[in-house]
Amino acid sequence: MKAYLIAVDGSEVDASREAAVRLFNEDKLLWLDLFDPDDESLAQLSEFLGIHPLATKDAQRFGQRPKIEDYDSFAQVVAYGVHSINEPLVEVHGFYSPHYLVTVRKQDCAAFAEVRATLTQHEGKRPNRLMLLYRLLGELTDGFFPVLSDFDDQIDQLQDAILAKPTDAQLADLFSMKRWLITVRKVITPQRDMIASLVSGVTELPGMTREIERYFRELYDHLIRISDLVDSYRDLLSGSLDSYLSVVSNRLNQVTKQLTIIATIFLPLSFLTGFFGQNFGWMVQRLTSLGVFLGLGIGTEVAAVVLLLWLFRRRGWL
Amino acid sequence: MKAYLIAVDGSEVDASREAAVRLFNEDKLLWLDLFDPDDESLAQLSEFLGIHPLATKDAQRFGQRPKIEDYDSFAQVVAYGVHSINEPLVEVHGFYSPHYLVTVRKQDCAAFAEVRATLTQHEGKRPNRLMLLYRLLGELTDGFFPVLSDFDDQIDQLQDAILAKPTDAQLADLFSMKRWLITVRKVITPQRDMIASLVSGVTELPGMTREIERYFRELYDHLIRISDLVDSYRDLLSGSLDSYLSVVSNRLNQVTKQLTIIATIFLPLSFLTGFFGQNFGWMVQRLTSLGVFLGLGIGTEVAAVVLLLWLFRRRGWL
Amino acid sequence: MKAYLIAVDGSEVDASREAAVRLFNEDKLLWLDLFDPDDESLAQLSEFLGIHPLATKDAQRFGQRPKIEDYDSFAQVVAYGVHSINEPLVEVHGFYSPHYLVTVRKQDCAAFAEVRATLTQHEGKRPNRLMLLYRLLGELTDGFFPVLSDFDDQIDQLQDAILAKPTDAQLADLFSMKRWLITVRKVITPQRDMIASLVSGVTELPGMTREIERYFRELYDHLIRISDLVDSYRDLLSGSLDSYLSVVSNRLNQVTKQLTIIATIFLPLSFLTGFFGQNFGWMVQRLTSLGVFLGLGIGTEVAAVVLLLWLFRRRGWL
Amino acid sequence: MKAYLIAVDGSEVDASREAAVRLFNEDKLLWLDLFDPDDESLAQLSEFLGIHPLATKDAQRFGQRPKIEDYDSFAQVVAYGVHSINEPLVEVHGFYSPHYLVTVRKQDCAAFAEVRATLTQHEGKRPNRLMLLYRLLGELTDGFFPVLSDFDDQIDQLQDAILAKPTDAQLADLFSMKRWLITVRKVITPQRDMIASLVSGVTELPGMTREIERYFRELYDHLIRISDLVDSYRDLLSGSLDSYLSVVSNRLNQVTKQLTIIATIFLPLSFLTGFFGQNFGWMVQRLTSLGVFLGLGIGTEVAAVVLLLWLFRRRGWL
Amino acid sequence: MKAYLIAVDGSEVDASREAAVRLFNEDKLLWLDLFDPDDESLAQLSEFLGIHPLATKDAQRFGQRPKIEDYDSFAQVVAYGVHSINEPLVEVHGFYSPHYLVTVRKQDCAAFAEVRATLTQHEGKRPNRLMLLYRLLGELTDGFFPVLSDFDDQIDQLQDAILAKPTDAQLADLFSMKRWLITVRKVITPQRDMIASLVSGVTELPGMTREIERYFRELYDHLIRISDLVDSYRDLLSGSLDSYLSVVSNRLNQVTKQLTIIATIFLPLSFLTGFFGQNFGWMVQRLTSLGVFLGLGIGTEVAAVVLLLWLFRRRGWL
After folding, report:
1. Can you tell me the ipTM of this complex?
2. Which residues of E touch A278 (CB under 8 A)?
3. What is the pTM of this model?
4. Which of residues 261-280 of A touch B (CB under 8 A)?
5. Dihedral sign from CA coordinates of A8, A12, A16, A22
6. Reduced to 3 DSSP states, what percent helix, strand and coil does chain B have, rounded to the nearest 5?
7. Listing from the earlier edge strand, what are the strands of the sheet with C12-13?
8. Minimal CA–CA distance to E101: which of E24, E43, E39?
9. How far is Cα A119 from Cα A130, in angstroms, rounded to an integer?
């Protein structure tokens, strides 16, 4: 377990249990960020801060959907961030009250370091605990944009690769991209709805002002955009799968046409060749001069080829 | 018929009609769990407890959707659990009132034994009848998670198998997996909505407190997650079917290309072979030295192969 | 036209105009069931009972959607039943008021005979006109269950048949099954919504009590189950169509592979055969001993076959 | 421009500007029906009747969605009718007030002549302006039924034709049928919603009574049925496209199987033929009697054919 | 940075900071249109006009969804226009208050020049700031119609091209058309909803009157039409992709049939040819007269061809 403890004046305090207790008792605890805590410590902390066992159990188990649960003395917030396409999404559990913000997570995520840096390095007015929660949710959410933009490029590259040369590996890519997108959508939709419930006033957080609400509305807007992006990538991916099939079929068509042309030319020629040459001693014995060789032998072949070419051209195959 | 009878102090009483009547009259009946009762006994019990004939008929017939029906003196609860992927879902009918909880089922399910064990073995405070109902519904619902997780693995294995080598048996698997998923969805959606109606206060159960509601809200959250999982598996299965078709088409394409290459090489060669060898005595008689054999005979073949290879390479087939 | 007339005491009266008028005037008319009446008689009856011309016109024309229209003095009810998969759905028009229940239909349906039998044969309390309407709607609705269960079996059989051997006839079956399902859905959805509007109190019928409403709620539940079944069959049918295509493609793949193997073996062999045998007198004249025949002739063939088999095995074709 | 002018007593008046002005001033103007008026005349009329410039501009431009806009002194109604499958839908703009009904259209449509005929020929009570609007909308809407019924037949014929022999022309038909259906749906959905807003009281028209509302409710019902029909045809069309692909694939499968059988029989036979006949002088010189010809020559061929037939039968190909 | 400054009397003033400040102080500032301003200037302007930092940041960053945000002293409006199919959509940020309308954009768009021209050239009453906002949004929105009409033609051309001859390039076109359509839909849907929120009164703009609302309702109608168009093009595009696959499959079918016919004719003929000519010296030596050549040689070939033609005709292949 690793922990970061920040006081309301922005100073980072060494994270020990005593320090946290002291800050809390002086109402100077701004943010306690726990990285992969053991169940025991979490349970003790929860009891100390008066966090409901159900919320604690969620934070021990993880695997929750994004949600805001309003317990009377605090609010439980579950939200997700993203690190990169290849890693699982980052689940964050937060406990917010007017007197503290506690976050619990099991993976690292750029959002945390950034928010911490802004808090401790910048001079001037410190945010209150709700603005801090907004910033954290905002950084977690905005982290999806660059990753989705990469995903967008990946779709384009895949589509180009499919049009160039369809392979089985592309199908495996499509499947795993679809799976990732489903994972993101399963998280982004409730995250959007949870912010919507905040903005529309269905869920209320202590300390919310009209000014702070504007910021959450901005966040809501970003979540809608992400959700729209995810939906459109879904559409494009299924379009890519369809065009894969179409490209393959078209290639097959051309290959088979090629095969048919070859067979239509050479099977009859081989037959003609065999017929005039092998069958009857009578004929073979009489076709012995150079002129007959050139006229009848080469002549029939050339005539057949010309006829077939004319037929192909009329059918638009050449 | 088998039955389990548990008193409010957590003690398991031998389940006879007399014992149940006695406990009920003393208001000490916590839970009566009936395993595959005959219609007759059920009807008698219903009459004794004042259960409405419509609710009794449902419990005799089975095959109902999950629902909570509020009859004035009791509530009828129908919910589903799962045993394993290969077995049908476990339908459970419950009759809940402030004075009893009666459950009826026709199959066994781990949830029942577990809840019973917790009740009888653990010391300390006994849950009231509503919390018991919550625990039962919770165990039934949470039983879906490991089964769905197995299902998830099964999808991945199927997808890998399809990419490796598509067979007809995989299609049969896909169809039966889809059918199972449809069965689960038909049950989970109304089960989720029934808990939602409890949590939002549309349906009211006697004994519901704000604290107990939190637990039902947690249950609701789990049901949403299951419902999301089912939807995403549906998506993935249909994606697997599409990629099946694509893999097969791609293989077909490669096989046909192979065929075309072979035919494009050897049909012309056979023709050349026949043309120079069979047709005209004039030619055959003049091609009798080793030099001519090497130069003209082997030379034309080699030239044709080189030409074809150059063509294939230009078209990107090799 | 055929008609059935039943008095409030359950006795079946010979259905003449006079009898109906007399019963109605004595307020003893329970149920008048008209089978394929002519427009004239219907118009006269409607005028006598005070039924609105719009409702009468609907009952003359047929082809309506299920609905309950509340005219002030009576309610118009349109509902559908089913006879078997091969026959069109049975449209039933009903006019319900506290003083009569009149039904009009153009096809026969088991539901009518059953309800009539229950009324006239059973002793004891007779249902009032609203419970009679419930029973009729209930029988019409429940008639869908066995037919849909047959349909379910039919889907399974079709799927098995497709996996065994896909034929064009199966596609025709799929199309007509889809068409039938669409017909059922077009009828079941509004029928469900019409009962929902009754149960939720949006539409009110005179004589509705809390107890009778429970029965209609049960009916509503059955209609939801039917509607769920129809949706899932739709899903399975479209899955069957997809697997049809996949099976066919897979078969095609195997056949083409077979063709390719044959061609890849025998086209080169034929070429070798021709090359060494036909081309050059020089060679043919020198290959005249048994040893050469066995060594060179059979040897090259065997070598080629072994090489190809090794290639096929490496590519996983055998 | 052509115009029809009808007075409240049902008499058709010669449609001049003066006549319209006179009837309007005497409040005897029932219906003024303008066929393809020029922008100038329409603008003058609008100014005279006090129609808002926005509504006038819509009627000059056309291409609007069905809608009812309530301007204070009048209501603007846009609705669509149909002439036949091959012609574009008929857009009708109406201006309704308690003192006039003005309709503007650019194409002819049976509905207009029919409503006019009913008005002028039938004796008895004349409808008021709102019932006239209802009749017009009703005729326009009901005109969709026969056209959609033709469309239904067309789908069945197309499906049969596809199962009999799939051609490219059928795909073009499918595409244009889909396009037509989309056009109809784009018009029917808002038309239905506009009547729904009338029936539910969201939009109010002056002169609406409970009795007239029943008629509009009937109209609403017809629009739902049309909308349901359009949705189901959409489903069937996409099913037809899928079965097209399946039929083609199945045919391809059979053709390829045929090809494979032929090749699997005759490529080995040709090889055997060539091997024993061409290769070695030693063998050819020894096979010169009739017995050997019959025994070895014909015998090997027959044996090969019998072997292949046995294989095909075992694989279920014959 | 380029800027256009227009006073309330319609005169275009040279756009300097001083001029803007002066007009604003005299409350004569009608419209300030900024083309690609630098962040610095925008920040200064925002501070001067009292625009909220969140709105300013949006206008600096761009990439927002269409929305109306009501800040107390002004409203932020984000809307999109279109230039042509090949260029990205034109994002416009507007700040509207009763005292000014400021627009910010980074690309040019015909709508701006047109609105400016109408303002400065036409005599008569000048619009107030809200009508100006309407006109701008109206021009931006109506600009979609001609572009979508071109898109419609493009779909038809593509469909015709696919039916004529399917190529890989068409698949790339389909993909990029789908992508463009998704982009448009992502913008049009929120733009429609934002106008809907204005029209329904959910969002209020200062200066809105019932008369101006009519114009916004007209705008809303246009946005619904655009949104309907986009949905139907989506449908048609996916139909085009399906018909692509079907056309390709059908072509493949015909080509393979052709191949099969050729092979079925010539493989047996070649075998017959080889069998009678190559195998046995006994036969070859006896077939030496012209009569035998014509009768047996040509006769067997002709007989085989006639037999095959009869078979093909019976199967409907010719």
Report:
1. 0.81
2. 273-274, 277-278
3. 0.85
4. 262-263, 266-267, 269-270, 273-274, 276-278
5. negative
6. 65, 15, 20
7. C12-13, C2-7, C29-35, C100-105, C90-97, C75-81, C67-70
8. E24
9. 14
